[in-house]
Fold each of these.
Amino acid sequence: MSPVLFWDIDGTLLATGGAGMFAWNDAVKEHTGRDFDLKTAIRSAGFTDYQIGVRTFEVLGIPASSADVDRLVRRYEELLPASLFRKDGVVLPNVRAILERLRDDRPDVRSYLLTGNTAAGARAKLTHYGLWELLSRGAFCVDATARAGIAARALALARDEGPVPDGMAIVIGDTPHDIECANAVGARTLAVATGGYDLDELTSHRPWHGCAELPAPDDFLALISTAHAAGEPARRE
């Protein structure tokens, strides 16, 4: 049995250094005429793009329809590619090596995106950091509903393309929101403390496994091969 992997983006695969916030803040300014600093206004790690949109209007005290939120998100998508050049972001440790190893040596291990980014936002980020050719299929944010809905769509896509054995769906993410959405669809979570939450915070939510960063490819493959074992408590490295 081979595991099926579902990858978050921000804080798991890469860190933009806050470059995406330039696009968001500029979009808010254009749409509302108000200055806004996403970094200080909202702890946005783990929020979907549309949830950030809803919360932005709430923080500003501006009533907003779903159409207002949609326009804000669409303008952010338009501004994002150029904004990514404004900071020196990084692909996080071992990510590229793992994805290349999976592509070259383990085609039986399928990988999908499970992200709170919109499809356009995800493509902009992954293209900028040279990961799009390694990981492009999956489920994306389409509205402000719970992240669990994205997980359900990602799992349905995977099942359309092949079997997903019990206990072998693994969500890889860096926030409690990733753990919660994995639990909602019966998946396990490999939680990595490379984003906005430390390892203690993550393991308090009882992921299947917690680590400071993704392990090297050999260790990563060894770890995910144990996913079929039932009943382990949360672990950390």
Amino acid sequence: MAGPLPIADPAPSDGLLPQQASEAAAERSFHAYVHIPFCRVRCGYCDFNTYTATELEGASQSDFAATLIREIELSSKILEESGLPKRAMKSVFFGGGTPTQLPAADLIGILTRLIDAFGLDDGAEITTEANPDNVGVDYLTTLKAGGFTRISFGMQSAVPSVLKTLERTHNPEKLPLVVGAAKTAGLETSVDLIYGAPGETLEDWRVSLEAAIALEPDHISAYSLIVEDGTKLARQIKSGLLPEPDEDLQADKYELADGLLKSAGFDWYEVSNWARRSELLDNRSAHNISYWQSQDWWGYGPGAHSHIGGVRWWNVKHPSAYSGKLATDFSPAAGRETLDERTRLEERILLEIRLASGLSTDLAKSVNPDAAKHIAGFIADGLVDAAEAIRGNLILTLKGRLLADSLVRKLLA
């Protein structure tokens, strides 16, 4: 299970939002995240809010969809009573955990209730994450018929020894079968990769990248492994059983990923994400972009986080506590914070600089009077596109993407 929840203000039991949440709401898009907290086994590196069958303490997977639908009904009431306009959803994302631990009918039932409550924008993106080992043709075809448009497979690696270190249980030979089945069903496809597992070589990473590209998905995410405190992997590294990730090797792996993916026709659009794009097609994740652009989303499920107009809150973590709150018609929110204007601007800098569309230099200068000096240094060091920066837009170069966190620290200093 993940670590403790953030420290913040108590959340009101009725869930009503302050006036700030409704200000300029019509100018922001609305999205839904659905957290399915169940996994068959726990991976050693995982710090997400997930539970195996032995950790449910009375909660039931079979009752979960009905419980979550109660939060959907509550959210519709809260948003209306808090003065927010009704907005059709531009995207819905089922994450976890492993959403496909639930029957396809449960996921479709949740989606249907969301659509009943809020409606869908034209061309809305509906995604679920999936483990390659627990979906097949029938499951994927049912999802497509039920309104899903996109599926994201947790590939992580194509190298058995790396998967073993990460404690991933799927067979890499299953990936071509399930990706092919998803395409046959008419779903857009994405695969998630992780690089930097202890013992993974640059050649191992090349094998995984080439295997992912050979699947011909529409989208590929490649995330650097972060060793989270409290995980089994962190304990293994601390005890010396496994080596710590090498930062220089991580950078080499990122450069290799960008080069191979670019050659295969994938454009980067966020530091860790690449998609196929053309005049007629845009396979970027609309849901992920909504996070980086600070749009509005309601997070449903145990431990899920929400953001509406600079008001951020998060639900109680355990499925039993979550269902108990909803059974008494109380909001399942555990804590809340209302961001002031400066914090919202700082968060925009933190997020928008990661996008290929760039960060406005005016925004950076509004937060830091010394931003112009730092931007000049970024240009001189080849960290941002010089011509774009002169036009008022900071777009990271490959070198800049490797140092994105450092650039943010300077801009916020």
Amino acid sequence: MYLHLGGDILVKKDKVVAIIDLETATEGKNNEKFLDNIKKNKNINYISAPGKEKTLIITSQEYFLSPISSITLFKRSSLNMGELV
């Protein structure tokens, strides 16, 4: 199964390592350093316009900044297609 991150970006669910809410992640100094380090040293795929990012998605190969909330992405990743009726 795939997870839609926004725009035209889909990733395989089994490749997702973490879905991080940027608002709560920046509350701690260590988290903020971690995010700053990723932004400086890693190639991040921006799905949204600058300043509209809500979630950092870490996959086994890439980093994405998405305008979709972490709660919505988590629900999408947990959704079992067999439950839809």
Amino acid sequence: MKGNIVVGQSGGPTAVINASVAGVYSAAKKLGADKVYGMVHGIEGFLQDKLVDLDGYLADPTAIEILKRTPSAFLGSCRFKMPKIEGHEDVYEKVFEIMEKHDISTLFYAGGNDSMDTVKMLSDYAAAHGKKQTFMGVPKTIDNDLPVTDHCPGYGSAAKYIAASMKEIIRDNESFGAEKPTICIVEIMGRHAGWLTAAAALSKGDDCSGPDAIYLPEVTFDVDKFMEKVNKLAATKHSVVIAVSEGVALADGRFVCELGDASSFVDAFGHKQLSGCAKTLADMVAAKTGLKTRAIEFSTLQRAASHLSSLTDVNEAFQSGADAVKAANEGKTGMMITLNRVSSDPYEISTSPYDIHAIANVERHIPAEWITEDGCGLNEKYIEYARPLIMGELQPLFVDGLPRHLVMKELFD
């Protein structure tokens, strides 16, 4: 691999996105790249020529191991939307100007749907204007909603945290033998796809009853049916725990959180900030039944819990980054690395580069046949799919009793 490369991170971080950066760096160095640059705060920082030579952080193999155990985005993330090419050619020319300035041959971008759209537009511009630089996508999203790939790095660790936390919440809620149950509603991330909330189903086992109901964005939310379900559960159980996606919506399209005090914030991609669904439902239950309720929102915890990351997930994130470099070294561009399931038992995957045009701006949902007939749970097909993704642990490196993280000082300059 001749010349230099650059890698960036974008969108919501995960517990293993830094393992992908480690994979890019390690593979590029093995293939002879001179410098591996990191974008400071993604493509937004790149457009400001904010780069860092990663040799200053990752030349020591111990640093690679710490980075694999560091949550969030080591390089800094962004939610910057590249404008449409027509009428904004100056923005795109700026990208290539900076690449030429630093002798960068390939740009690697780790992210989800919006990030893959950036890869698509940059590679399309390069093809249309005779540019020699190449672009590769590295999959990342706890939402697990990228198409084509079997699953996305980041999902397994988030699912592991969600399932483990649900077990702990259920155990806590079952501790009290009150005559009337406490109704505990747990809000889990997921705007239009319920992959994260589905992970609550993994908590069920011989030592845990699992959640009493799971509500996904794939199923239209009916307030009356929800209340009917709660009343039936409350009549027969001394503990009720329900998992609900932040993105569950009514038949008229309104998010359930909008029935309460939802935020009006909208990001650069037009996404409403979703929060408060659990509180809205808990308040509703309390008002209509008089039962004690509790609302729990996992929020950032589900994507930042590297202390409970899945070893399978860490290894696949690293492999995705490394294989993106190998594909670029073979002359490929405008592609994303996909994970392809060979077998679930024993679990085995392969990877391959795939045309970014089939991936960018396409959202994958949970198959209807994986959802129970009543629309309030997941069946064994989902369990068979998801269980292998949460297997194994990567123990943190503890210093002074707490996990050690790798921190890039340029983020705070």
